[in-house]
Design brief:
This protein is of the alpha/beta class. Helix content is about 45%, strand content about 15%. The radius of gyration is 17 Å and the shape is globular.
């Protein structure tokens, strides 16, 4: 098995990479800028005995997507579409237009371009052997995240629709398309967005009584990519503690 993971070197992406490595996947990890995190994740993955290649690209640019898939080569058996960025926390009215644009580019345009490229590699009509595409969405897509990440939530809602539509389109071509929508997960995203205490503040409001951990999301991704989920497609699994 050879799997491409975008945004695969930090937070949820790193957890997904390590979980898939433990399941025997050789990996190609795409990332944008954090070389230190990339090298650390790659080292942890390689320690399990699988192959791991790193590719630094900007997936909001079509040439970046092309470069990533060219580096990944063939055959690929799976793609995890995980690149994401929420931007600064705050009301939409106070969010600069360039930030809104970048959030939409990273969280919706990039996943669309990656999904398009994945179909051209995995789909039987393009010479592939079939496979699995996992789109990482967010629980924000159905909550809306008012006062915090409305633009991010809107983009992630588009990812849910991508999973639904492409899952139906890709089934006859031998590709399962599934989504995972994490809720409040302990990653650096919240601190990077300017609210390091956010999870402590909202964790008690989650029916499960706490924030989630990256490996809980990774376990769901690993299951969806396995033969045990062979009849699951065109749907998004929520990993959000009931929220």
């Amino acid at each position: 098995m050879r799997t491409l993971v975008t945004g695969g070197t930090r937070g949820i992406g790193a957890a997904i990479a390590q979980r898939l490595a433990a399941a025997g996947h050789d990996l190609v990890l795409g990332y944008r800028a954090d070389d230190g995190a990339a090298q650390a994740t790659a080292a942890a993955v390689r320690a399990t005995g699988v192959r791991c290649d790193l590719v630094a690209v900007d997936l909001a640019e079509p040439r970046g997507v092309d470069a990533l898939f060219e580096a990944a080569g063939r055959p690929l058996t799976g793609v995890v579409n995980n690149a994401g960025w929420a931007g600064p926390i705050g009301p939409l009215a106070e969010c600069p237009p360039d930030v809104v644009r970048r959030v939409v580019e990273v969280n919706l345009l990039a996943p669309l371009l990656v999904a398009r490229a994945a179909m051209r590699v995995l789909g039987r009509s393009h010479g592939g052997d079939g496979g699995v595409l996992v789109n990482i969405s967010s629980g924000a897509a159905t909550i809306g995240s008012p006062g915090e990440y409305v633009h991010y939530a809107a983009a992630k809602a588009g990812v849910d629709t991508l999973t639904l539509g492409l899952g139906k389109e890709a089934g006859p071509d031998g590709v399962r398309v599934v989504g995972v929508a994490p809720g409040a997960i302990r990653t650096r995203m919240h601190a990077d967005s300017g609210d390091a205490d956010r999870l402590d503040r909202i964790g008690s409001a989650v029916p499960a009584g706490r924030a989630g951990e990256p490996d809980e999301v990774a376990a769901t991704v690993a299951w969806l990519m396995s033969a045990e989920a062979s009849y699951v497609t065109a749907t998004t699994v929520r990993v959000a503690g009931g929220r």
